[in-house]
Design brief:
The chain is an alpha+beta fold and 317 residues long. It has two domains: 5-143, PAS domain (Beta-Lactamase, 2-Layer Sandwich), CATH 3.30.450; 158-313, no CATH class. The protein has nine helices and 14 strands. It has a seven-stranded antiparallel sheet with strand order 8-14-13-12-9-10-11. Strands 1, 4, 5, 6 and 7 form a five-stranded antiparallel sheet that branches. Strands 2-3 form a two-stranded antiparallel sheet. Strand 5 and strand 6 (115-124) form a beta hairpin. Helix 1 packs across helix 2 and helix 5 (184-197) packs antiparallel against helix 7. The protein is elongated, with a radius of gyration of 28 Å. The relative contact order is 0.11.
């Protein structure tokens, strides 16, 4: 089973943490002996820099978050960072665990405006055990190796609220027939043909503006726009070659037309609460629905087919 988004992030963080705990602990122990000398600290940090995998900057901070060393980088020392107050940076506001090691949540860096994170290792006095400060190691997320499997979108119903301004004026509006509404049966037949035998695997259907955005297995990184003129003209099918239905599609070909017919039913179900746009993706098996109230739903195709009009209008379960 593929990972979820949260599991993928967690695996990435664990892999990075495992690679940092030991080298930062050794660096902290050695730095404690040099803590009162900027020059000695810089030398120690420089000697350990290459042992901290994928590190962008390495530095030392006192317990108040004031930098007491230069920044160590791949290009050498950056003395302009000495004395820098990092106390208000996101990683300094997180609670350091009892182990003394913290891998921060990701944040946007001030220097490069890119997603980054910081590892902090507590430094203690060798004799008294009193906290002296921290070793900080900054990482640019784009430099970190990807160790997790690409996550899979969960196949479960999700409901998302939209623009509150639209919801507040819901009962002041009324559906107006679009060009696509007037030719919707023709469009359903054309879209069924494109999705089942001509390589279209995803479509976003904008009923109110009479257009569709489609993606094809032959050219998946570019979308194509179909206007009402194309969606009502069967000749459009000649523009796309016949392709076998994808074996790894979660939506079976026999379900494509029923899904499209259900979309039509939701479009005409009510003059106030009606379907504005929808999408189908054959590979992840999800249907998205956006209504006139600007609420959106993402749900598995089979669950979508199980719901009748009464469910959407609130008259049945």
């Amino acid at each position: 089973m593929k990972q979820t988004l949260k599991e993928s992030i967690r695996q990435q963080r664990l892999a990075l943490q495992d690679s940092l705990v030991e080298p930062l602990a050794r660096l902290a122990a050695e730095s404690a002996r040099q803590w009162d000398s900027r020059e000695a600290l810089d030398e120690t940090l420089t000697a350990h820099f290459e042992r901290i995998p994928k590190c962008t900057f390495l530095y030392a901070l006192d317990t108040k978050g004031i930098q007491i060393s230069d920044n160590v980088s791949h290009t050498g020392l950056l003395p302009e960072h000495f004395g820098r107050d990092r106390s208000q940076r996101p990683y300094m506001k997180e609670a350091v665990p009892a182990s003394g090691f913290l891998l921060s949540e990701a944040y946007i860096s001030l220097r490069s405006s890119r997603p980054s994170l910081t590892a902090l290792q507590l430094v203690r006095d060798e004799t008294s055990g009193k906290a002296r400060g921290f070793i900080g190691a900054d990482f640019d997320l784009r430099n970190l190796p990807f160790t997790a499997e690409l996550y899979e979108e969960p196949a479960q119903w999700q409901q998302i609220k939209g623009d509150a301004a639209i919801r507040s004026t819901l009962f002041q509006q009324k559906r107006v027939d679009s060009l696509l509404d007037n030719d919707i049966d023709q469009a359903i037949s054309i879209l069924t043909e494109l999705m089942t035998v001509r390589g279209m695997f995803q479509g976003v259907f904008h009923f109110s503006s009479s257009r569709a955005t489609i993606w094809l297995v032959d050219d998946p990184f570019r979308y194509r726009l179909l206007s009402h003129a194309e969606l009502s003209d069967p000749d459009i099918c000649l523009a796309y070659p016949v392709r076998p239905y994808p074996k790894d599609a979660l939506i079976p070909p026999k379900s494509v037309r029923p899904i499209l017919k259900n979309l039509k039913a939701l479009r005409f179900a009510d003059d106030v609460i009606y379907l504005r746009s929808a999408s189908i993706n054959l590979f992840n098996g999800l249907i998205s629905l956006t209504f006139s109230c600007d609420g959106s739903h993402y749900m598995p195709y089979d669950e979508f087919l199980d719901k009748n009009i009464g469910f959407w209008l609130g008259s049945t379960s």
